[in-house]
Amino acid sequence: MSAADSGENRWLGTVLRGDTGKVRFLELFFDLVFVLGFTQCTALMVHEPTWTGIVRGLFVLAMLWWAWAGYAWLTSVVDPEEGAVKIAMFAAMAALLVAALAVPDAFGDLGLTFALAYGVVRMGHIALFVLASRGTPDLRHSVTTLAVSTAIAIGLLVAASFRDGVAQGAFWAVAILIDFGGPALFGVEGWRLMPAHFAERHGLIIILALGESIVVLGVGASAGITGGVIVAAVLGVALASALWWMYFDVVARVTERRLIRAAPGRGRNALARDSYSYLHFPMAAGIVLVAVGLENTLAHVDEPLEMVAAFALLGGVALYLLAHVALRLRNAHSVNPQRLVLAILLLALVPLASRLTSLISLVVVSVMSWLLVAFETRAYGAARVDLRHEASAEPGPAPET
What does the pLDDT look like over 293-314, one tens digit per residue? Predict the structure, then answer.
């Protein structure tokens, strides 16, 4: 433990997790604020339907993701429902809510508000990790290096709030590179995690992102319920369900097993960083882009999508698939050819989608996604069944999707 197990020290300090990898109720409560963050990023891109708007939305999403990832690492070390962590988590939720409210104008008048609120979220995370690392020199060293990259990134966001145009975008880009690059540059030797908890936490955030794609179906249908809107809504649920299947049917299980079986220390930490903190971000970004495409589709079911919206719909699914390809490459050192081919095909179809009605485009991407699911389910056969029911000691090569 980081503090004495009883009395005042327990309340003021932190308590390390026991053997359980179960996600706590407070973590689920904390993650709900990120649903608003996802929604606000979607709103930013929908209300600014340009390439600049897409980039800005993804920039903000990247910063929010990294804040969430930091707390995922934290609560895989300390029990979030014990000691000072509980109150600090509530405070971080409040600051994160302010940051999320500022997202639609994070590149305008509310840029400084976003930067300062985001800074409070990140500094609270660092402070809790400092408490948790007492008596653990290697973890304290990792926390110190993370604090440096975090402080620089926050400073750049504050500076960006006083700029506009290309200069502002450049400050944001550098802030993201420094924030994401800190763990890669300074190493991961000192970090700790509970692998089952860490994997489950990331699975839950993917579900929350998929939930956002369902929510926008209602937002997109707000103009009125017609036959076309009903069909589009059903297809939107079908597409979100296919995305769920692509990850949770096999990929999530294989990735979790590999993390659990990795030797504790640098190897496991690097695998967790790459597979989850890094490669789950493009999955979440792809889902948010799909949400942007779905909202535009339901708002204009009988009209072609603008090029940016067409890219969001098809390119979002492509980005999601490419993240899976990279995840398998990182874990199994092989490539999933069918997912790579479908991702490339969807990107190639973006110009065509901007000429078809949005409903037809949604039909195409939904059908293609489910054809991939059907093909993989049949192709993997018994190996997939063994993996899902944990009947085999090691996952076979076929289902490493």
Answer: 999 999 888 899 999 999 999 9
Q: Residue 47 class from Cβ within 10 Å (0-12 exposed, 13-18 middle, 19+ buried)? A: exposed
Whole-angstrom distance, CA of residue 4 vs CA of residue 139: 18
User: Rounded to whole angstroms, how far apart are CA atoms 178 and 172?
Assistant: 10
Give residue 231's Cα distance to chain centre: 28
At how many degrees (to 10) do helices 337-348 and 358-388 cross?
A: 170
Are 346 and 317 contacting, i.e. CB atoms less than 8 angstroms apart? Answer: yes
Residue 62: φ, ψ to 5°: -60, -45
Whether residue 183 contacts residue 146, with contact meaning beta carbons closer than 8 Å, is answered with yes
Provide, for the chain, the percentages of residues in helix, strand and coil under a 3-state DSSP scheme, each rounded to the nearest 5: 80, 0, 20
**Range(s) of the domain holding residue 315:** 194-401
Q: Do 250 and 334 belong to one domain?
A: yes
How many Å apart are CA 183 and CA 179, to the nearest integer? 8
Tens-place pLDDT, residues 189-217 = 778 888 988 999 999 999 999 988 888 88
- Among 192, 221, 239, identify where a domain stops: 192
Total domains in the fold of the chain:
2
Nearest-CA neighbor of 297 among 348, 244, 369, 231?
231
The 3-state DSSP class for residue 357 equals strand
- The single-letter DSSP state of residue 333 is S
CB 63 within 8 A of CB 173: no
138 & 229 share domain = no
Q: Which of 311, 242, 247 is nearest to 279 (CA)?
A: 247
pTM of the model: 0.90
CATH for 260: 1.20.1410
Tell me which residue of 137, 175, 173, 140 sits closest to 154, measured CA to CA. Answer: 175
Q: Which residue among 155, 175, 192 closes a domain?
A: 192
- Same-domain status, 139 and 201: no
